[in-house]
Every structure is written in C-alpha cells, then in structure tokens.
C-alpha cells in the first residue's frame, strides 16, 4: 500500500548533500578532500541545508574513513551549512569517543553539527573485526550503545564526556532496512534512509517509520530524509555517460574487487554479464539520471512515493567539474537559485 502522508513539491522541502569523498582513478586522498571543500562551499552558496560525510573502511575509492576529522575540515572551510555524518557506524567505536569527538566539533562549530548513526560496519567482515577488535559486536547491541551515547551528552554517566556533555547535537538514525526505521520511530528520532544503495527497502522502511512514530521532546511528528543518487547534466546522454562511473564502482563491489572511482565509459554493457547488469539495475533502482527536465520529473515522482521531509543527493561522478555542475543544476531544478 502507498504511504499516506501529504504530498509536497520538491520546491517545498530542503535538499542536502551526501559526500563519500571519492578518490578517482589516479587521484589521491588530498585531492578528494580539496574537492569536498569546493563542493561544500558551492552547495552552501547554492542553499543546500546540510553536508554529510560517510564512514567506510577498506575502500580504495572512498577517503572519508576518519569521518569526524573530515567533518571538521569541511566545517572549517564553510560558515553556514550544517555538516555531519551520514553516518558514523557506532558499533565501530566507543560511545564515549563519539561523544567527545562530536562534542568537540560542536564546540568548534556551534549549531552546525549533525550526528547520523548507523549500525552496519561500513565495510567487509574482516575489516570490521580489525576495527572492533576484542570488543567485536555484530550491531545487535546498537540500541544500548545509542542509549549510552545519549547519556554522555546528557551528563548522566559516571564518566563525563568533555567536550560533549550538555552539547545539543541532533542525532539521526540511518538505515537501509527496517531495524533503524523501527528504532527511530520508537524513540521519536529523525530517520535517514539509504535509498542510494537499498532502493527495494525504501518504501517498506519509511512506511514502518511513519506508522510507528512516537512523539518525543524533540519531534512531535516523524521527520524522514532519503538519500538518492542524482546525476544531472545538460543532456540525458551526457548524464548517462557520467553515471557509468558509479555503476562501475557498484559492479566492482559486487565482484569483491573495490576500486578507485573509474572514468566513464561509452559502453558499460561490454564490461558486464547480463546477470551482473540485472543485479546492478536492481541495486541502483532509485538512481536519478538525466537532463534538468527529466531529473525534475524523477525527483518529484520520488518525493511523491517516499513522502520524505528532506532529500539528500549523492553524486559520484569522476569529473570534478561535472560533479559541481550537477549540483548547480539540481539547485536550479528545485528553485534554490534562478536559472540563468
């Protein structure tokens, strides 16, 4: 059954940015971080609401593994846009460490820091064991970790998080399935869904969240943000060409051969089997690719299906200038800036 919430226009909701700090083929992490600064500064100027970075490990094409550090770097080079994590994988860390790190970020950049939390490792199982060591957990204790983290911010633990205690940092739960949807609903927290890699679970998870939401001190109503891949260009052909880079990344992950972000190719079909193509199309089923007119239609349709309160765009494009331009086109599409 469809989600029953009021339908809004894409011109009526905030738009935000998800950055994986991609390392392109032949590039370096230093270049990736410079590109992140340029994208953050542009999207701040264009009027996007928040700029989130994601924690991934053992990924040759993703530079944001030390997520808290990169958040501080981006926040230091911007002035108004909210900066946060999409997300911190809490089972990889001690809740006290995260309370201190984000308490420090909030002290440095008051009123601009978001803390999005996930329970997956953000990597393969071998790397997860390397991260978590003797304290390895499969994420089943995520609710308890979350409760402890909140207690550090509230100052109700015997051990004090300084900085961190008393910090008013919005906490989001992130999900790609129903677990965090249900938990965030029970706790009255905002929820962010990863439709950019889990499109099939998007509507069931959001429906679960909307229908089970319990009001809290911070939120009287559910607030859902949905992340989606968006690649906009002047023509459909150019956008589809640019999109072959992210498709190659997913293809390499499927093959367990993760790589740096590859240059686009003219005929991706030549590089994969029909079976791989079917899996790829399924995993990137919500991806929005095209010229401004078609992207606008697809974004509006996506919003009408999800009934989201906010949309977060992820644009994994090999050419940095094309990536910047895609965000500029999205800003024009949703009315953040006037078309020239």
From TrEMBL:
Domain of life, per UniProt, equals: Bacteria
Tell me which GO cellular component terms the UniProt record holds.
cytosol
* Luciferase-like domain: residues covered: 15-277
Q: Which GO terms describe its molecular function?
A: oxidoreductase activity, acting on paired donors, with incorporation or reduction of molecular oxygen
UniProt cross-references to Pfam families, sorted A to Z: Bac_luciferase
Question: What family does the entry list?
Answer: To bacterial alkanal monooxygenase alpha and beta chains.
Q: Report what the protein is called.
A: LLM class flavin-dependent oxidoreductase
Q: Which organism is it from?
A: Niallia endozanthoxylica
